[in-house]
Structure formats: C-alpha cells, structure tokens
C-alpha cells in the first residue's frame, strides 16, 4: 500500500521546498509534485521533516537503587507523540559483567519498543575481557559507540587510565567514545562537605556540581581522545566552560561533538530554590540546570554549529522514587523526562523566537546525529530510499504541557504549564502512521533494532594523519666516534 503526504513543505537540514512524498514498504519511494497513492495524508500548512532522533535516553535504567519509570513501551510512545521516531538507549554492564550478557538484557527490554531504536554500550570497568568484547560489540552487534561516565564515583565511573585504554580501543575499531563529563572525585568531595554542613536539600545537588566540574572533565576527555586519536561525543553539555572546551578543540581541528539537552536550554537553576521539596527534587539531574548565561552559550552553539545535537537524556523517576533522597540529596535518583516535549519545546523556544532556523531545527534534532552515529541517510533524511520516519509538523497547533495528558508513566512533567506550538499532525514510523492528529496509534513491538556500522572515514583520516605525524627516529649519517 502506498501512502502520499500531500501539499506540505518539506524541510530538511539544508533545503526547504514544496513537494509530495510517496511512501511504500516502509521507505520513501518518490518525492515530487502531484503524487498519488492508496492513502493520502493532508499536510496543508505543515512542514514535513525527518522524524526526530533522540541519541540519549535511559528506559527502565537500573540506577541509584531503582529503575527509571519509563520503559520501552511508555518511553517510545512518548517519543512518537512528540515527533521522535528513533531513540538510542545505553546498555550498562554491571561492574565485572560481560558486555554481551548485559546486551541480552537490553535486547529483551527493547522488544516492547513502538519506534526504532539502537544502543550505545557503556564501559563501566576495564579488563582484557572488556577489550576483547568491544570488538564483538562493534563487529557483530551493530553498536559503534561506547559511553564513559566520568562521574558517579563508586558505581559507573571510570578513571583516566581506563578511559585512555578504551578510547584507544575505539580508535582501532572505528568506534566513537561518548563521555558524561563531570569530575566525579570532586563531586563526591563536595557532596560530603555539603552534607557535613547540614546542606541536605535538592539545591545542594546543584551546589555540588558547579560548571567548572563539567568544564574540567570535558577538557580532560577531549585531550585524552586527541592522544588516543579518536573523535569524541560529549553528552549533556550544559555550560559555557564545557562548550568553550568543545569550541576550542573544534577550532584546533579535532572532531568533538557536543549535545545540549532541551532541559538545559529552557529550564534554569531557580528550579532548585523552590520552597516545595518535591518540585526541586523532580528536577535533580546531572549536570544540574544552570543560569541564563550558560543557556545563551548553548543556544549560540546550536546556531553557530559548535554544538550539534539536542537530546533529552530521558531518565524519568516518579515523585515517590525522588523521595528516596529526603534528608540526603545524594540519594535522589538523578534524571528528568522530556522525550515527548523535545521537539515542541525546541520549536517554541528556538524556531519561533528566531534563535535557530527551521533547517537548523532539523539538523540538531535529527540529521546531525544520524550522520554522527553513521545512520545517515537511512535515518535523518528525506531522500528516496530512506526509511519513512517522518513528522508532519503543524506550526499552528498548540497545547499546554501537562502530566495529565502525557504518555510518560511519571506523575509530573518538568515543563508543566509551558504553552508550546509546533506539534505533529502526523508521525510516521517506517511508513506506518503512528500519530494521527495527536492520537498515538502505535503498536508495542513495532520498533526494530537499527544496527550501526563503524566509521571508516573518520577513523581512517585520524589514523592516517597520526601515522604521518608520529614521532620518528632520526636516521643520522654523521655519528661521531665515542670520545671515551
Ligand atoms: N543525567 C542524569 O541525571 N541521569 C541519567 C544518567 C546520566 O545520563 O547521567
Ligand atoms: Zn550522564
Ligand atoms: Zn544519560
């Protein structure tokens, strides 16, 4: 059966033009004027864009003594409702656990997905087994990205020597390392000091993770990546210090990518000073929300291209779960939601305000990450042969964000009360209409794992240059005889 999206304006990362799109067998099969099919979707007054790709989510994540509340069912429904058609989750081996065993668990959880998905693999400990398994993960399991937590001391954190070893292995395998960049040792010391001083509320979470802690770790990870000869992707870049390190590295020719979250772009640190403990605790995440200057820096990075992608780090906990940290902010599960809200919030606060263009919107929500993760042009593109993952965005459609109407399983929304415009009239996942005028009509299990090949081009360029510029022994002709 062929579906035609008619009368819309196609918006991609680099073009805006009027054309119809014909979809068949899950793929885009034709783009042009006056197309006909068995089913017609009217896109009059709408923009037809590649579906959003969220490269950073944690669905049913085991973390801080509990599990994040949105699983692959509710989480991917939330994604589709907001125009996101693919998510990338993190497979987290326990310390000492085989990556391949952990992956079985993630494969199992993800069978419930309503939209396509992929995985990053986390390096949570180091050994010869990890070194060997990384090759299997890349070459047999379709995962070309490895995450490193520089924070969460005592659980997920890895040290510099482990990071250097893992980054070097990524370089050999043509894989991309990712980092959560915060100095975990400094955070742990600051947390203890705050607790000793009786500062145990959610605001102390933010005090224990100042921007300098993130800036230092970002810079360190960049230097380690450069020494290992590998590109680097920095997740949840939240502040000017981290952005500055990324900007500088890029100006020096390094392939470093930065990912602000929609939460950091639109919510600020005043959330932690609310008199209501629940309000502040619900917004505890790492890194914490920052001030307006940091937000301006992130917006400028998206506009100028020094930051590449907007994600959510969707890791949602209920109010009851957040209350594990009553009396000790260190026990508040870290994480916030945003999957359903990323596109409408970015459209409202980015495109509608003139901070970014429509084409930049597509670039930072879909196309850039598709290229970075080696998914392009299967995903992130409107081209014949691409997957028909599409969002028909109505720029006039609006709503007030409310936990009462959201897909997410939690009992609140950090964007509660925000008035947003720019909502999906339709969302298509591999050609299937999964959102129709705001109604989610998707099916559990429709989502498929998307395998990703390693990056031959970037790693080849880096290794070629490294070899050309490697220190070499000087071959001498005139060697003086020993004077002894
Ligand atoms: N960001 C956060 O607070 N929770 C999720 C885990 C992580 O990404 O650090
Ligand atoms: Zn993180
Ligand atoms: Zn995360």
UniProtKB/TrEMBL annotation:
Query: Which Gene Ontology BP annotations are present?
Result: nucleobase-containing small molecule metabolic process; pyrimidine-containing compound metabolic process
Cofactor section: Zn(2+)
Where are the coiled-coil regions?
none
Mod. after translation: Carbamylation allows a single lysine to coordinate two divalent metal cations.
What CDD domains has UniProt attached to this entry?
A: D-HYD
SUPFAM superfamilies recorded for this chain?
Composite domain of metallo-dependent hydrolases, Metallo-dependent hydrolases
One GO cellular component, as annotated: cytosol
EC number annotated for this UniProt entry: 3.5.2.2
Q: Which UniProt keywords apply?
A: Hydrolase, Metal-binding, Zinc
Q: Which residues carry this modification: N6-carboxylysine?
A: 147
Q: Which family does it belong to?
A: Belongs to the metallo-dependent hydrolases superfamily. Hydantoinase/dihydropyrimidinase family.
Q: What is this protein called?
A: D-hydantoinase/dihydropyrimidinase
Q: What is the lineage of its organism?
A: Bacteria, Pseudomonadati, Pseudomonadota, Alphaproteobacteria, Hyphomicrobiales
């Amino acid at each position: 059966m062929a579906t035609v999206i008619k009368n819309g304006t196609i918006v991609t990362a680099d073009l805006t033009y009027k054309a119809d799109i014909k979809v068949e067998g899950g793929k885009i099969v034709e783009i042009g004027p006056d197309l006909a099919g068995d089913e017609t979707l009217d896109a009059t007054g709408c923009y037809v864009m590649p579906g959003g790709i969220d490269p950073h989510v944690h669905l049913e994540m085991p973390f801080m003594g509990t599990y994040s509340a949105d699983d692959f069912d509710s989480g991917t429904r939330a994604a589709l409702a907001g125009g996101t058609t693919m998510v990338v989750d993190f497979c987290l081996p326990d310390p000492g656990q085989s990556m391949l065993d952990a992956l079985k668990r993630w494969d199992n959880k993800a069978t419930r997905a309503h939209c396509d998905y992929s995985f990053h693999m986390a390096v949570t400990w180091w050994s010869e087994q990890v070194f060997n398994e990384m090759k299997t993960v890349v070459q047999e399991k379709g995962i070309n990205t490895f995450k490193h937590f520089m924070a969460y001391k005592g659980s997920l954190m890895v040290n510099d020597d482990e990071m250097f070893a893992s980054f070097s292995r990524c370089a050999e395998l043509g894989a991309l390392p990712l980092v959560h960049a915060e100095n975990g040792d400094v955070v742990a010391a600051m947390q203890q000091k705050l607790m000793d001083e009786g500062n145990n509320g959610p605001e102390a979470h933010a005090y224990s993770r100042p921007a300098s802690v993130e800036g230092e770790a970002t810079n360190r990870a960049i230097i380690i990546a450069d020494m290992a000869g590998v590109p680097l992707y920095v997740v949840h870049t939240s502040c000017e210090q981290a952005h500055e390190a990324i900007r500088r590295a890029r100006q020096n020719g390094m392939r470093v990518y930065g990912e602000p979250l929609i939460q950091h772009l639109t919510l600020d640190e005043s959330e932690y000073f609310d008199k209501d403990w629940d309000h502040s605790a619900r917004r505890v995440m790492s890194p914490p929300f920052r001030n307006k200057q940091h937000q301006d820096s992130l917006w400028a990075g998206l506009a100028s291209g020094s930051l590449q992608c907007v994600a959510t780090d969707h890791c949602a906990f209920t109010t009851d779960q957040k209350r594990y940290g009553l009396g000790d902010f260190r026990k508040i599960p870290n994480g916030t939601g945003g999957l359903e809200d990323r596109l409408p919030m970015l459209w409202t606060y980015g495109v509608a305000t003139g901070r970014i263009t429509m084409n930049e919107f597509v670039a930072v929500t879909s196309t850039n990450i598709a290229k970075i993760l080696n998914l392009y042009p299967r995903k992130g593109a409107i081209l014949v042969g691409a997957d028909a993952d599409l969002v028909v965005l109505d720029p006039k459609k609006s709503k007030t964000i409310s936990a009462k109407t959201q897909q997410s399983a939690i009992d609140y929304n950090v964007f509660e009360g925000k008035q947003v415009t720019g909502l999906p009239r339709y969302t298509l996942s591999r050609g299937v209409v999964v959102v129709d005028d705001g109604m989610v009509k998707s099916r559990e299990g429709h989502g498929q794992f998307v395998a990703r090949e390693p990056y031959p081009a970037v790693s080849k360029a880096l290794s070629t240059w490294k070899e050309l510029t490697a220190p070499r022994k000087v071959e001498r002709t005139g060697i003086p005889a020993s004077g002894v």
